[in-house]
Amino acid sequence: MAGGAAARRRTGLTVEDVHERLEELRELGLYRRMRMVSGPQGPRVVLDGKPVLLLCSNNYLGLADHPRVREAAADAAMRWGVGAGASRLVSGTMRVHRKLEERLAEFKHAGTALLYGSGYLANIGVISALAGKGEVVFSDELNHASIIDGCRLSRAETFVYRHNDMDHLAWALERASGRGALIATDSVFSMDGDVAPLTELVELARRHRVRLVVDEAHGVGCLGPGGRGAIHEAGLEREVDVVVGTLGKALGSYGAYVTCDADLARFLVNRSRPFIFSTAPPPPAVAGALAALELLCEEPRRVERLEHNGATLRDELAREGFDVSASTTQIVPLVIGDAGQAMEICERAIEQGVFAQAIRPPTVAEGTSRLRLAVMATHTKEELREAARVFGRAALQAGFRPGAGEPVAAARETARPRSARQRAAA
Ligand code: PMP
Q1: Domains in the chain: how many in total?
Q2: 351 CA to middle of ligand 1, Å?
Q3: Same domain membership, residue 210 and residue 336
Q4: What is the CATH number of the domain that holds 347?
Q5: Domain closes at, from 265, 298, 331
Q6: What is the pLDDT of residues 214-269, one digit of tens each?
Q7: Which long-range contacts link 261-267 to residues 24+ away (Cβ below 8 Å)?
Q8: Least CB-packed of 194, 207, 219, 389 within 10 Å?
Q9: pTM of the predicted model, to two decimals?
Q10: Which helix (H) or strand (E) holds 373?
Q11: Are 51 and 136 within one domain?
Q12: What positions carry a catalytic annotation?
């Protein structure tokens, strides 16, 4: 046994390999490290000991640190404990899970809601359950990593269509001749802040008789009437087969949910591996999300403030010369291009009291490194104005002229590396 293990170590990743690969990442400007934050994810935090304006958290509505949400989580810990113990199929559904599912289904005007451990698990769980070998999944090239991984796990062929390009998608659907399983798209693209053409997607899905799966991770709480999301904003709530939403962003907690009809929900309970084989979300997180959902319904003005703040930040950045025309939401990317330069701007902005993390490959395509700015409803206009000035200054200090980068929608023509598997055509 011991000899076998030693042999495996020699052929696997050695300690030297690990060091070498980390060094390589450093040289490429792609090394990642975590920064220390003190206190909750509010509009201002202490970052590695320095007070800064936080401009890259997905706590969009300021609910993660809301007193009522904290109290609900604390009460739930006292009533039901901290952990759910097991998968719900093993040790049972707790009342708090069922209650949140009922409220979410009501809020989203959906047949059923089903909780998952996280948005990542929900996406891989839905796609791998609804598509399989011999079928084709159609996926936008800027979809979140969890959708990409769901496609891989499904073992279906994946056709990656150009970002929001409905002609490209239509062409692929045509060629798939009946093998299509589903189209998957983010509603609000997480690194770009633009919105998918949902009406056209619904039409194409219908015409070609494939399901449409929409990830509203950055839509719910941020867009549409009462923060119901981009699908509601487009009036399509009865037209999308499966909607994935997270509890970890605008709803200020952790976990996720899927809304769909009751038959599909029963199918997911039986066939979706992350639902079956992973522990149910912890009661404090579920109760916290429930309280956040109540607050969202009671105070829809939070959503309006978020939209307003998004527009303010875009205007102020444009005044500094940045091209932010690709974004229409609370997510505003400053596309820089070079990874090292994006990191330098990030560090210089932190020195001046504003934090927005630089996002580099493989999260975004080669040559499109950026600062991903995310607004909260709890930021003030003055804070956003000052932040825009800081980014303008930091960019110049790093040798980048604001406006020299392209908005991502335009940059996509020049930088689109794809894996062979992702390229697999219909
Ligand atoms: N989908 C999108 C579009 C996301 O941006 C994210 C998280 N960044 C996820 C899914 C995953 O959600 P979670 O963080 O709950 O795992």
Answers
A1: 2
A2: 29
A3: no
A4: 3.90.1150.10
A5: 298
A6: 999 999 999 999 999 999 999 999 999 999 999 999 999 999 999 999 999 999 99
A7: 261/111, 261/112, 262/111, 262/112, 264/112, 265/111, 265/112, 265/113, 265/114, 267/129
A8: 207
A9: 0.92
A10: strand 369-374
A11: no
A12: 190, 218, 249
